[in-house]
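[job 4417] fold queue: 2 targets
>>> target A
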Amino acid sequence: MRCEKLTELIEQAASAINMISATDLSEIENLQKILDQIKQNITEISDGPAQLLEEAQGRTSEATEALQEILRKETQDTARSIEIISQAISTIQSLANKINPDNSTLESEPAETDHIADVETATQETTAISEKDAGFILDFITEAYEHIESAEAGLLNLGNQPDDKEIINQVFCGFHMIKGLAAFLNLTQICQLAHWAENLLDLAGKNELSMTGNNIENVFEAIDMMKKLVVDLEHSAKTGKAVSAQYSLPQLLAKLKESVENHSSAPSSTSQQTQEKDKELDRILSVEDEPKKQGVTTQAQAPSGDEKIKVSTARLDNLVNMVGELVVAQLMVSEEVNTTRASEHNLCRKIAHQSKIIRDLQQLSMSIRMVPIGGVFQKMARLVRDLSRKSGKEISFTTTGDETELDRTVVDKISDPLVHMLRNAIDHGVEPPEERTKIGKNPKGRIELQAYHEAGNIVIEIEDDGKGLNKERILKKAIDKGIVSAEQELSKEEVYKLIFHPGLSTAQKVTSVSGRGVGMDVVKKSVESLHGRIDISSTPGKGSIFTIRMPLTLAIIDGQIIRAGNNRYIIPINSIDRSLKPTSEQLSSVHGRGEMAIVQGNLTPIIRLYRLFGIVPDTEDPTESLLVVVEDEDKKCCLLVDELLGQQQVVIKSLGDGLGKVKGVSGGAIMGDGRVSLILDIPNLIELANKI
């Protein structure tokens, strides 16, 4: 009965981790409760294999600790923490199957020879890796080399300080990380080796044995063997050939296991009895003349000569910043030369050539941070699969544009919004199969996720063929909650965007997936933090399309430089609709709405920048000035400026915590003469204009 309960709890945990979001505390707390129950259930199983139960308990504790770090906001990489939890739950699930393979009767603790035979089987069994996992294998290899290097460095220091817990933990973490990743990819040989080395180091960390003599020598052998296994795996990943079992691996595993079970606290000498036992182990663990294969069935193509290295994002950020400073310095030199020399001067030509090289360097430095969005899309595919099963809905999920590249920072931050939106599409958008059949739809729902570049932006679309948004229900719910008044006249698009208001939910019942009125407001904030926006298009009975538009990078924009008085400002090019010199017939004042300009037959509010920023303009007469029409989400306003100075690519600089949030300003940029120009926050200005 306990095993049946354990299996049920593990299934609940596996389902919960695939739906978890770092911003939804209720989901995190729910998973925490499930893990606590799993831990308690494992403790109550007294007649199962001790080694497996102990490992299951340890992996449960590991998942619980990572979850608590998320709750306490102590982790810098939430996605990585969630991945660790997911891997731990997957391992627990595998261990539970070994503890109770038929879900009815627990296995008794195997005899010593049986346990050794299990080691032999584990190291020789074949593991099929699908074609789609080839990329994961290459990523694993890169990370494995780093963990091996770290563990080896710690082990060398451990020779002089065998009781240093910090160094022991460093070596332990190296094997532990390799083990988790290997288990996820079903790399049995690597996983088993890391497991037994990890057990030995865990005992050293608990002062139950000393890392001296044979103990430390065994770990050194494990390091050397791990290098061989990873090298073989890399060769296999590049050539598509199988990985051969290492002849000496079973014997090494047996030695590690013996060290663990003996709990030796002093350098051991090999007695006659131990020698005889080693010979017996050699006989039992010896492989056949023709070693069995650990298969890697993948069609991964051998990589080209384009070698890759991993570089810390901090270094890339510094590179981008320094290149940005170089661009500014170049602009200053160029402006100085152009104002003091004739355009045909030889120095001017050289400066122009240098400017081109620096612009190319800037583009190259930015491209280094660009990564495909395919990794995020692959996670979403798993999410849709698990949620569709949980909700009892059949869903066809397709992605396009996986190769679309954008800044690494944007990739890291876009995952959470996509999770929320896909969950809503499955839970609220796509109807149950029987309901779809009744209205003549295919019982299998359809969700498409695509990404593409458009006008210097990255566009991500989530489209479903569900029931669409109910305008009347959204509006009624918003009125009931006091978000809008019954007298307000709202367009269809404005009504749809009410779903982004915190606490607004039209769900008729709360499910384990969604319906609490949280999530979509988080989506809006996350996208806005990336300087993006969300558009909604929905047709009742046909489905909805959510479109996210964001800049490719958060560091550089193409801007239009304008002047108001003696100050210069920058307007993002993508926000500009047109510019014009107004006539008196186009200008008017509307009661309650302030100054307006007629642009293409529509009344558009005017913002006088000189009033907003408290500066002295060339003239206060709009007919002697220029209007720059800017837009955001189908809303427009006119900015009254004195002059357009030209377009330029600028490096965005934060105003810093000292200034905080400045009304109408999103950042600054250093210009060619060394002065700072403010970058205008167009969405904020349009919102301000519509409130006047």
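>>> target B
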Amino acid sequence: MREVRAPGVYFEPSEQRIAPLALGESGVPVFLGITRRGPLDRPVRINGEARFVELFGEALPDGYLGPALRGFFDNGGQDCYVLRIARVEGGPDDAVARVAHYTVLDAGGEPTLRIEAVDPGSWGNRVELTVTPTEPNRTFLTLDADAGETEVHVKSTHGLAPGTRIRVHDQNHTQWTTVRRVDGKRLLLTEPLERDFVSSAPTYVVAHAFDVHVRDFEREERFSGLSLAGASPQYVERTLNEQSALIRCTALRPDTPLEQSGPMALAAVRLEGGADGLVDLGPGDFIGHDRGPGDRRGLMSLVEYDLIDLVVMPDLMSAFERSTRFTLRGVEAVQEAAISLCERSLNRFALLDMPPGCDFEEALRWRRQFDSDKAALYFPWVIVLRDGKRQTVPPSGHVAGIYARSDRRVGVHKAPANEMVEGIVDLAVLLRDTHLATLNDTGINCMRPFGARGLRLWGARTTSSEPEWRYVNVRRTVSAIMAAIDTGMQWVVFEPNSPGLWKRIGRQVAAFLGQLYARGMLAGASAEEAFIVRCDRETNPTDVVEAGMLITEVWLSVTRPLEFIVFRLTQRLENEAQSAGEE
């Protein structure tokens, strides 16, 4: 209902709406692996093996990425990322990943289009390219056009659009030009007419374009009516780059007369020069580098992807087994780089495999090289069926699936342990209880058989030597809370640093932690015992405020897993019972 007011200025208070804090998605791993094709140095999200095959091709038979992904999905994982690793520098041409390509010439013999496979690899050498002129679309003038005019009137504009290359001709004269704009039955041209054209001659207007047909063994794509003019809705570079799953195009724009600027016809030529870059991979190919946005490789390319909270590297071990550039020291260097990446992130965690062939003693030696609360080691390797044959593979992919399943069913505060491992038929090393006790005490998480209960993941410890960060779920719970507060409190920046703001922050963080306590993520008989939030004059004295800072202290009591159950059994002797009865 309209309110009648006297003319003047009115102020209506409006409270700023702030989104409540919430935990982000967890149990989303990235798998670093070696593939036949796919983007390099850019993690791609997939939701199943079929999507993996579509983007990256069939898994390599001698690699561990395929079994790791299957283990992830078999154990309850739903979404993950795949980061393709290949050698892109520091080797001969046939050892470095390269993109297959072909250069298309125009009618004047000048390069006009560079066609490349969508990503590096020898798979691109199988891509066939066909270029043919589009069936000419012809209409005619309905009004005379004088020399110097920049427009003509035609009977039909079907097939004509901005950027269309056209030939205006009568029985004696021809002129090539380009359509600048279509207005009803009127064509506005980029160049003025050089002579008079009479409609009764007759004078024809013929549209010239070209078609591209591309295919490999799995896909086939057709693009019709393409143009070399950037203003055209069918501009070849934009159309192919946005719509093709096989190729990318660069228009080279040679200085060729318009009548010769169309690409020459090609009949099923293959792209060439593609290479996989899988020969002698080294630690540097996995670690990569970070030279800023647009120039990140390997592990370092993950710094931009906050949704990834688990790092899994099954093919690190296959590279170690196949490459002369890899040593155990190189494996350690890559795992250390993964840990460092996780330590620089709020909520990222590394799942590490032991090197192939490790026994009990070697596993203990490998464990001594790491001390971090952002990683966990898993032992032993597992045996799976692959194409009907037994194959021994690293366990990290199956473990990542258990993490995802546990996070989804209960929450990140649930220790990902005492869970059945699906998709495996045996373990590479069978451990005795004494071995399990030693490995667990040193921070190595093992798998063990339990008869009818199946093969189970039996450990949830980090590689940290600090008691407060001993358990995986404790570390990941605190990390998830930190990430949620970091994301949800960005509104605070540039707000007035005053007691009113401190109270708002305290209330918002306390409300968030209260919800987590109600879900069982925090320990304590009451919310007051589970957490404390302090944001006041004591945490923000004058020198802190004058420095433009705001400090909030959060104390948490996180639930810890139950590892040992002790029953005290006391036997009462029969003669002692009788004596007690006689008394």
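[job 4417] complete. Note on B: The chain has four domains: 29-90+278-473, 98-134+210-270, 137-208, 496-583.
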